[in-house]
Amino acid sequence: MFYPNLIKERKTIMSEKNLRYSLYLGCVIPNRYPFIEQSIRNTFKELGIELVDMQGASCCPAPGVFRGFDITTWLVIGARNISIAEENEADITLGCNGCYGTLLEVNHLLKHDKKKRDMVNKHLAKIGREFKGTIEVKHLIEVLYYDFGIDKLKDYIKIKFPDLRVGVHYGCHILKDSSNRPWGGEYEEPRFFDELVEITGAKSIDYKDKIMCCGAGGAVRTASLEVSLDFTREKLENMRKVNVDCCIVCCPFCHLQMDLGQMQVNDKFKDIIGESYKIPIIYYNQLLGLAMGMNPGDLGLVAGHDLKGVPPFISIQPLIQKIKEQMI
Amino acid sequence: MEDLKSDRILEIKDDISNELRKAGYAEIGACIQCGNCTAGCPSGRRTALRTRSIIRKAILGLEEVLSDKELWLCTTCYTCFERCPRNLPITDMIIFLRNLAVQRGYILPNHLNLCRMFYDTGHGVPINDEKWNIMRESYGVNRVPPTVHTDPKYVKEVQELISSVGFDKTIAWGKYAKKEEKAEKK
User: Fold this and answer.
1) Are strands A165-168 and A137-139 parallel, antiparallel or unpaired?
2) What string of DSSP letters covers A159-190?
3) What is the largest CA-CA distance in chain B?
4) d(CA B108, CA A112)
5) What is the 3-state secondary structure (H, E, C) of A110-157?
6) Interchain contact, A172 vs B114, CB within 8 Å
7) Do residues A116 and A272 touch, judged by C-beta distance below 8 A?
8) For the whole model, what pTM was predicted?
9) Strands across the sheet with A20-24, in order?
């Protein structure tokens, strides 16, 4: 499937002055990594971007998992989620690469294939909903980079972290299928996320197989935990070799895999990895918020609880220590 | 002694490739078996997943392409899709082959559980313990997220759609999983 005209077609339905989006949360952000939700809500508020909740949204459904089980179910449930945002009359923004893959593809497929749209709407009519095709689906990285604008974002940076060495992890579905992603067809050596990280003064350090998958997607984490962790082990090893202070991600499932997975790698592969990995995993909005001079407590970097067995599993203290001087 | 297996393919079936063509993946006929897909596959580095071989088996109509566990070791990273010199939407074809596999009863027990969780809660990863609610509150966001979790009527909507499509019936036919369950009981 090749959609050459997509990039030209994508426009925002609101004026530049008043950025307003439906916030699609998905599953992992609200139910396992709520500090990501906190960092998204608070940074966007600080930037003056309005976020509207999507009442009653379900799993997107996941592109490798439920799409792999039944494509029609994937289309219909995805369309239901999009219809909630259509009622809000606001484009969707989201912070998960998997949800991005699903909702972007479903939205595009149904906008351009009348037969499929009619089929989906026949099912949706049973619950009183309809897919109209009136909105766009955008990753929050895309919103920051294009809609808000990286140049304008630079004006909000108050603190810079020149000593910080960062391993940037893009994840897969934000880049590929490149023909319907907004990055001009680039997928082997993209720069947009590095640029967004580097406006905070941090240095994005190149490492081997930077674009490689974290190993969680496509139902592999469920099918074979060991295989999926082996991906993660390789990524962590490549990052450790270039001595990064932290890894910046833009997807909660990658976040989960590199954080919870890191702990599992340290356990399952302890015979071959030598020393345990201790790479803090940070969501982009957390780093951005710090650079905007926001309180770490508003960015999910300080836990207000003493619960056990909840993320982050890998301590973020080494990172906080490293940047403490700049923050005072 | 193990059973002997024939070392040659005597009959080429076209049922699988025809299903692919019907679903809009006519490109399967354009595969030149160059192996770029296998070469770039991060899963193939560490498993027996050979993407080129999956496409080959699909063309030849070998049922094993659907029953082999390797079909489920693709993380859908889309590297093969991007690098295919013949522009085959390989990852999408693998996803379609997974659909066929599920329709014919080949599904892992873990995946079946995932389907049931999705049907029961509307989430692939639901809040299934109060600690997650407490954790949410501690980070200053609503105790219950504004998702299907807010009201059972939303879960009903999702269930109605799943039944309307007939997917609830498909997963109940999970023969493979049933066999595993039986084996576990023994």
Assistant:
1) unpaired
2) ---TT-EEEE---STTT-SGGGSSSTT--SS-
3) 65
4) 34
5) HHHCHHHHHHHHHHHHCCCCCCCCCCCEEEHHHHHHHHHHHHHHHCCC
6) no
7) no
8) 0.93
9) A50-53, A20-24, A92-94, A137-139
Residues facing residue B51 across a β-bridge = none
Measure the CA–CA gap between B104 and B11, rounded to whole angstroms: 21
Using CA atoms, how far apart are residues A187 and A210, in angstroms rounded to an integer? Answer: 11
Q: Cis (ω within 30 of 0) for the bond into A63?
A: no
- Which amino acid is it at A185? G
| A76-112 per-position pLDDT tens digit | 999 999 999 999 999 999 999 999 999 999 999 999 9
CA B52 to chain A, closest CA, distance in angstroms equals 18
Nearest in space to B159 (alpha carbons), one of B120, B129, B117: B120
CA neighbours closer than 13 Å in the CB half-sphere of residue A28: 22
Q: Which residue among B114, B141, B171 sits closest to A37, beta carbon to beta carbon?
A: B141
The answer to whether residue B5 scores a pLDDT higher than 90 is: no
ipTM for this prediction: 0.93
Q: Answer for the pair B99, B19: CB distance below 8 angstroms, yes or no.
A: no
From CA A35, how far away is CA B136, in angstroms rounded?
Answer: 8
Reading the block at residue A226, the tokens are 């060991």
CB crowding A286-304: b at 16 or more within 10 Å, else e: bbbbbbbebebebbbbebe
Max intra-chain CA distance, chain A: 59
Token pair 């989906």: residue: A120
Domain ranges of chain B: 15-103, 109-185
DSSP codes, B14-76:
-HHHHHHHHTT-GGGGG-----HHHHH-TTTTTSS--HHHHHHHHHHT-THHHHSGGGGG---
Residue with tokens 């029953």: B67
What is the token pair recorded at A22?
A: 């439906």
Q: Which residues does chain A have with pLDDT short of 50?
A: 1-9, 11-15
Query: Do A68 and B135 count as a contact with CB atoms less than 8 A apart?
Result: no
- Sheet-wide strand order for A203-204: A203-204, A165-168, A246-249, A281-283
pLDDT score for A8: 43
Residue A20's Cβ-count burial label (10 Å; 0-12, 13-18, 19+) is middle
What is the fold, at CATH topology level, of the domain defined by B15-103? Fumarate Reductase Iron-sulfur Protein; Chain B, domain 2 (1.10.1060)
In chain A, residues 168-227 whose CB comes closer than 8 Å to chain B: 172-173, 175-178, 187-188, 209, 212-213, 215-220, 222-224, 227
